[in-house]
Batch of 3 targets.
Target 1
Amino acid sequence: MKYKLSDISNYVKGKIDVSTLNEDTYISTENMAPNKGGIAKASSLPTATQTQSFAVGDILVSNIRPYFKKIWFAEYDGGCSNDVLVLRAKEGISKRFLYYVLANDVFFDYSMATSKGTKMPRGDKTAIMEYEVPKFTYEEQEKIAGILAALDKKIHLNNAINKNLAA
């Protein structure tokens, strides 16, 4: 059995005043690292008075050039550019499981296959919500997410060790 992404998540539509943000709490496609590499400090804030908001546990996915695989699990509240999709797990769905579903290369391949444009392809927001997701109980979702989170921690630690050894 499978869900559609729309069955387990929604796009967040809230706004936040840019005046309440800083370079650490603003996310754009520019400060999202490719290949699921997380985020960096923003170089600047938008000139608009308001921008898209996000909250802890939301999943931010760059909607421009999906092949760069830019995704981040929000660890704090903030704001982001309109080129970043903000997805929120529905009641009864594990936030971390949703993140790992979206961080899968298969999702990015799907997003590219359904994207619009050639030079700067953008994910099709309607098609993205049609993406099929395996159906698991909440307990199974948490178990899967826990295993993947443990692997992510080991990868992060190994990368830090390699960086230290290189220095």
Target 2
Amino acid sequence: LSRLYYFKEACISIFDRRRRYNFVHFMHEDKSWYESFLFNACLPNPENWRLSQFKPYLEYYSVFGDRKKIERSKVPYKVFWTGEDTRYNFPEYHDNCTNDCTISLGFDFDDSPNYLRYPLWFLYYFGFSLDKDKIAAQVTAFNKHNSAFDDKKNKFCAMIARHDRNGIRKQMIDMLSVVDTVSCPGAAYHNDNTLIKNYHDQKVEYLKSFKFNICPENTSTKGYVTEKLFQAFDAGCIPIYWGSDMPESEVINPKSYIVYDGISDISKTVKRLYTDPQAYSEVKKENPLLDSAVDYI
């Protein structure tokens, strides 16, 4: 079957002059996901390219596989990208493959000439736009959303996650459960079916009903900031965050979220905001994204 597949691919390629690109070691495997992946849209003249495993001209690599495949590849152009923490969760890729790839992108701070810092929240909300007006409009939208859904917020707090490998999510849930029930529609500590049933797995839409969102990162690593904080802001929640110290300090207003340091009891702070509309309103008056965000992005 494998030989037949590649033979068929080769025959097609004889009549197809488009350049081929491919993905290796990415988490998703659905072809439609690859074909709609943001990087595809950023290819020059995308109509001249097609997704193919047969002798690709350009190949994208991530961390979910053996690095030796990247090192052995003879592809002319290689792009490494990941939103994962390569320092602790994927140490094999801790150097961001800068010596093995043409271009490398990641969350880390790396001064290699072929490296660009591109954390996961960029991919979710800003893409590769170089249009400053569009970036400014997105920042403005975030700040408007902070109070836009307050009339829908009749629930306490949600935590959406697939796992809890370091136990920090359970720690935060237990701490805040003395205030009210924490809704968990994900695989971790599941107690709520409405994310799928009522919101068709649309996380931001689901969160619009909640005042708070527990959104810890998978690790506490400098620079490692994913989409979680930004999705909470997008839904108008007050995020309760554990992760990088002062995440994206040139972008995010530290007065707009609650930090859990892994030690201190934050239940009194959360309870005060939850039970005192005036106190809650004071935090919600803060714009989540700073004026400096546009230039930084």
Target 3
Amino acid sequence: MLPDVGPVYSVSIIPTGAGAAGYTMPLPERDDMFMTKGRMLQEIMVSLGGRIAEEIIFDDITTGASSDIKKATQIAKKMVTRYGMSENVGVICYDDDEEVFIGRDLGHTRGYSEDVAKAIDSEIHSIIEECHDNAKKIISEHMEVLHGCAKLLLEKEKVHR
């Protein structure tokens, strides 16, 4: 349903480590050197799919999607602060990654105002919410695929292509 992400190569419900109860792995159809805004938005939508399925099916949520949410947030943040992909914030790089002192939060400088920080936060939130809404619509329109995949995964635990 998301043409820029590529077909799904593998899906598993086998736990793969701390906090990962399974995964969905798309396989890119081409090796692109640069990511488009559209593809990044679709990557965020893919990352939110598991959480959305929980919301729809169980009318509740778990901590299972925490790393997916982190990934989605990181993509949205880079779109806004590094790649200039926000009309509201502009084509400016706000992502310096310069450290001035040993340590984490103490050592990072921020070369922009609190108003800009609020605009960045608002834009990241808007991107995530829009992707969440779009992905939820797609999943809701294709519930038979969700149920079919779940049934197959309960039988086989891992499915390729």
